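Problem statement: downstream parser choked on a complex file, so we are re-checking the raw output for the cobalt (II) ion run. The parser issue turned out to be on our end (a line-ending mismatch), but while we're here, posting the original submission so the record is complete.
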Amino acid sequence: MIDLIKTLTEAWGPSGYEHHIRQIIHQEVEPYADDITIDSLGNLICRVGQGGKKVMVAAHMDEIGVMATYREKKTGYMRFANIGGLMTTTLRGNRVKFEDGTVGVIGVHANGGDKLDDFYIDVDDGSGDVIVPEGSPAGFWREMQVRGKRVIGKAMDDRIGCVVAIETMKKLNKQAPNETYFVFTVQEEVGLRGARPAAQALNPDVGIALDVTRTGDEAKGAKMAVKLGGGAAIKVHDPGLVVPPQIVQWMVDRAQADGIPYQRELLTGGTTDAAAIQLAGAGVPSGCISIPCRFIHTVSETVDLDDVQACINLLTGLVSNPIEFM
Ligand code: CO
Ligand code: ZN
């Protein structure tokens, strides 16, 4: 699983430019899906099983990033715009990678530092040539690292959710009493734009998003009960989704029956693809299995391998048993 986490987190794929990461995932899941389609926005939709309840599982492929907007005439430095929720505190000295592999370093103008306009990207290769045209998208760049049970990398949000979906597909090995659609979605970080039409088209009976969630175990962190190493986080509420109590209970019952460590999650900032899925068609009861993650939206997003395994086990249990509460 470590190798898969490394491959996926290091892959390139800012929102709207998921073609590389999609190809990697497509190859990985091919043997474990009964049917695979790519819709017009680029969502990768993999069906496993037939009959029973129709379940949509969503994990987003895209990552936050930047887009080069304007080349400074004197220096050649690139000004840039954000793709998704950038925090300016994470920018100084950070590295971004463009699609052709060019690595840029983010600098800050003298006395600047809290507005996007204060920053620029150095892409100078010493030749004086323009190697990054205006309009080029980039993702942040860092290699994945392992520290015991903890794995540190860029884009854990939400490649670790993709890993949970892929590993669950492997465990199912095409055997399931439900019709489960594993959807690797596009453009979550710019407003849940991929999950919405996918859910509309699939019209599932129930939706489950897989995404990272914040932890309350940072030094002066948010007052939040979720902690790293505490198990799969079963979402109860976030600003975009009130999880129907019967969905929470379905997940809690499963975790208890299978002896899977879990914790209840109440998130006070941000939301997930489940917020979009619930509004599809005539409405879809939806929940979320969250992977606890420290330092979200930085290049050092940190997860715990036991938590990841708990999420895989919980999702596998949910979709491989008959769904009777609805
Ligand atoms: Co995010
Ligand atoms: Zn996410």
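For whoever reads this later: The mean pLDDT is 96.
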